[in-house]
């Protein structure tokens, strides 16, 4: 099977009732983005999210010109909260399309805390939160935007640390797939690159 996306409804013409793009590029971590703006605090999940650099540490997320992008454009900061399995229903509740100024922390019943370095709220019970300063805000196709932020603060709840490592089997982070599908990371294995055999872990 082959189709060209730019040719209208290419997937439908190929016999697929739904666009498979998000199922092909999967799993994707969920960036539960919190911001603060002139109308109050905002919390929203983004599945177009990932780390893009580690020195300095940088992350990106992308979406339409909604409250998150509008707020960080004005404030220059945002926070990324990790979604653990136990938080999946609250995360989903915060995705509801509501009027500007509605506080999704309250809407989803999520406990709020203040960030340490930036003027921004964070999810108090998230296994980890990254405090970020915006370094790039780029307009993509149409009304979609991509924000790149440099991590200036890291919160980790101690119960998710084991032997000094952030343990994903304890966190059980939620990932986004295609369609209405999600996954949970429940099993982790190690794999050493051939050129790293014998080297100490950095």
Automatic annotation (TrEMBL):
Q: Where is the Flavin reductase like domain?
A: 23-168
Identify the Pfam families for this entry.
Answer: Flavin_Reduct
Organism's domain of life? Bacteria
- InterPro entries, alphabetized: Flavin_Rdtase-like_dom (IPR002563), Split_barrel_FMN-bd (IPR012349)
Q: Which Gene3D superfamilies match?
A: Electron Transport, Fmn-binding Protein, Chain A
Q: Which GO terms describe its molecular function?
A: FMN binding; oxidoreductase activity, acting on the CH-NH group of donors, NAD or NADP as acceptor
Q: Which PANTHER family match?
A: BLR2425 PROTEIN, FLAVIN REDUCTASE LIKE DOMAIN-CONTAINING PROTEIN
Which protein are we looking at?
A: Flavin reductase
Native species: Cypionkella aquatica
